[in-house]
Amino acid sequence: MTAGIPPREVDLLVIGGGINGVGIARDAAGRGFSVLLCEKGDLAGATSSASSKLVHGGLRYLEYGEFRLVREALREREVLLGNARHIVRPLRFVLPHDGRLRPRWMIRAGLFLYDHIGGRRELPGTETVDCARHPFGVPLRPGLRTAFVYSDCWVDDARLVILNARDAARRGAAVLTRTALLWARGTAGRWQARLRRKDGSELDVAARVIANAGGPWVGEVLRRCGVERAQATLRLVKGSHIVVPRLYEGEQAYLLQNDDRRVVFVLPFEEKFTLIGTTDLPYLGDPGQVAISPEEIDYLCRAVSSWLARPVAPRAVVWSYAGVRPLYDDHAANAAAVTRDYVLDVEPGEAPILSVFGGKITTYRRLAEHALEKLAPFLARGAPWTARAPLPGGDLPPGGAPALAAALTAEHPWLAPATAARLARLYGSEARRLLEGARAASDLGRDFGAGLSAREVDWLVAEEWVASAEDILWRRTKLGLHLPAEASARLAEYLAR
């Protein structure tokens, strides 16, 4: 799937291998267009693997009047849950109440809207619990009386990107990673573009249309296409997260209000850990060099410690990451208030180029549909099709990933239950293909630890564009949290061979 001779002429050239780029490529390929996607690094190598890992409507966006965005996101939450049940799972969020922050009536009104404006079908609605009596109140500091509990979903963000790219490739798209756009020029209604591969080789491609999904680099892509001034502009906002050893029992998440009017998520993560985020800070540097600051770590620790019975100290952090959100600049005074909605801008010129400004991971599929609608004057329209099309591995049996994991251990008694559960979560129904023909653990080849076998590594190279140990440990899987540091060197050595 990941090899082949790249086409020299396509209907659509997509620049950028984040969630919006792969979503557009998948939708277009499924409509019968010829598509080439190029990504200068790894798929999901920047913003799309640095999110809060949520498929959600954005409860706090209601405060800013973003009703259209919240409605669309809530509808997409249910679509994604239906099409990618192995990497998307329901999550109950606990919102403890403190009258010194937002009043009870405001929270109740917001949650009522949240329950109803998106046409919720599957997820349970809001309830109110007594913190002193309900298990959800146990991790919270003493003295809190009431908490509101509502539904959203968790997602493996990087795998969502990979699965969209795999489906695009399965439908005929060419996906080139480690391939940068050098320049493109529109002439006689078509684009002539030059790409450079990691090995230094260059490729010339002709395209009827370019879709610029460069994320934080959308302006740079426009400049390389000869467009000096875009109609829309970006506002870069840094969001950082920390991971600490598990803070509490249970699979519930917490949404904690802070005294600066922001909120902080506290999420169960990778079985043994808790994920905390996020910050919202203006960012002016190189998006490729973004990193969390000590001040952000302190901020997140303080925000959580003010609500939980068990304080969190910076020394507890075992991993952190930061990303740059490429938001559409609506000129909001506060970075936290900048819209998460998206704008699709088609630039006039010798040939059409559509650029994506803003957006959030939850709405990527509708963004792709809207992009194809915008490009209908230049490409045959085609019919929308992705709403009911499972992503690779998403056609799970009743009971979802846990039922599949149980079936895998029954079919392969030598397979550790923890490994079976991980394979079911990552690969869904395709886990059976990965294990096909194996009758003993030795058939999977070398064991790198935590259940990562040579068979799985070979699959990731052949099927998922893996080129480095980092691709595997921190994007395709999160095994970097579970393996010792020397495992990365062993994995790099294996890949080099």
Can you describe what's shown?
- The chain folds into three domains: 9-47 and 159-232 and 339-388, 3-Layer(bba) Sandwich (FAD/NAD(P)-binding domain), CATH 3.50.50; 88-154 and 235-331, D-Amino Acid Oxidase, Chain A, domain 2 (2-Layer Sandwich), CATH 3.30.9; 400-496, Helicase, Ruva Protein, domain 3 (Orthogonal Bundle).
- The chain is 29% helix and 24% strand.
- The chain has 13 helices and 18 strands.
- It has helices at residues 19-30, 67-83, 104-116, 157-170, 218-224, 294-305, 364-374, 400-411, 417-427, 431-435, 454-463, 469-476, 486-496, and strands at residues 9-15, 35-38, 54-55, 88-96, 127-130, 146-155, 174-176, 179-187, 190-197, 202-212, 234-245, 253-257, 263-269, 273-277, 281-282, 319-328, 342-347, 353-358.
- A hairpin with a 3-residue loop joins strand 13 (263-269) and strand 14.
- The chain starts with 8 loop residues before the first strand and ends with a helix.
- The model has no long low-confidence stretch (mean pLDDT 94).
Tally of separate helices: 13
Computed Rg? 23 Å
Residue runs with pLDDT of under 50 for 5 or more positions: none
* CATH fold-level label of the largest domain: D-Amino Acid Oxidase, Chain A, domain 2
What is the domain total for the residues?
A: 3
Q: How confident overall, as mean pLDDT?
A: 94
| Secondary-structure-derived class | alpha+beta
Task: Determine the N-to-C terminus distance.
Answer: 20 Å
The CATH class label of the largest domain is Alpha Beta
Beta content: 15-25%
Under CATH, the homologous superfamily of the largest domain reads D-Amino Acid Oxidase, subunit A, domain 2
Reported for the largest beta sheet, the result is: 10 strands, mixed
Helix content: 25-40%
CATH architecture of the largest domain: 2-Layer Sandwich
Query: Which oligomerization state do the chains in this entry correspond to?
Result: single chain
Number of strands: 18
Q: What would you call the shape?
A: globular
